[in-house]
Design brief:
Elements (H helix, E strand, L loop, with lengths): L1 H31 L2 E13 L2 E12 L2 H21 L7 E3 L3 E4 L15 E11 L2 H8 L3 H5 L14 E3 L3 H26 L4 E9 L3 E4 L7 E14 L1
Antiparallel strand pairs: 1-9, 2-5, 2-6, 3-5, 4-5, 7-9, 8-9
Length: 233
């Protein structure tokens, strides 16, 4: 009888310890399952460091040779204007003129055609000297004084600005975004009465580069968002 009592006490103690272990294990699992997902945004405004500026000249006429002579004379004046303003031969590209023969176009109203040939010439400036190019754009009236009327830009001839120095600012922006994500997680942990634990998962979003606004396309806004999961203890 005495041995049975001892065995019963041992069994009861074992069951109690087992229950404690199970409870501790469940609590630990519950703690491990508590996480918070946060995002951190880093944003900067930067100046474009590369520009592509198409300059379009159009003319019409019935004598093709005379029209070509007009185009060549206009191109020479445009190139001279660009070089005087600080551009080099490597930054200036003269494309072959595009000629439209309106009499050869079966869809045109040939009875109303006064000038047969319509010629378009495009000179493209591609340069890292963005400020110099912007200054030249403001002086385009000087070409008008020389008899060169530049055609208005359309969708296909819009000046394009690029920012190519992304790799130089990437590390600092990722660090800033990660720091802001941690600040948000710490605030959440404080509000919930928890302690912020280790990072469980982190994802770096894609960098985006957009015009700051439609009026200053040479100013770009660079953004990146990081997504981080933290454990809560």
């Amino acid at each position: 009888m005495k041995n049975l009592r001892i065995e019963a006490l041992v069994l009861a103690a074992g069951l109690t310890l087992c229950g404690l272990f199970v409870n501790c294990g469940l609590s630990s699992m519950a703690d491990r399952g508590r996480t918070v997902s946060v995002r951190g945004l880093a944003e900067r405004q930067v100046k474009a460091d590369y520009v592509m500026w198409p300059i379009v000249y159009k003319t019409t006429g019935n004598d093709l040779q005379a029209v070509y002579a007009d185009v060549n004379a206009a191109n020479a004046k445009i190139v001279a204007f660009l070089k005087a303003g600080g551009m080099t031969d490597d930054e200036i590209s003269c494309n072959a003129p595009q000629v439209i023969d309106l009499l050869a176009d079966r869809y045109s109203d040939q009875g109303r055609i006064r000038e047969r040939y319509n010629v378009t010439s495009t000179i493209t400036v591609a340069s890292g000297k963005v400020d110099t190019v912007n200054a030249l754009m403001k002086r385009m009236g000087e070409l008008l004084k020389q008899g060169v009327a530049i055609a208005a830009s359309d969708y296909s001839t819009t000046t394009q600005y690029e920012f190519r120095g992304l790799n130089d600012i990437k590390p600092a922006m990722i660090e800033e975004a990660t720091k802001k994500a941690r600040e948000a997680a710490e605030k959440f942990a404080d509000d919930s009465g928890s302690r912020l634990g280790n990072i469980q998962k982190a994802t770096q979003g894609l960098f985006s580069i957009e015009d700051r606004d439609q009026y200053t396309p040479h100013i770009k806004t660079v953004r990146v968002v990081t997504m981080v999961d933290y454990a809560l203890n």
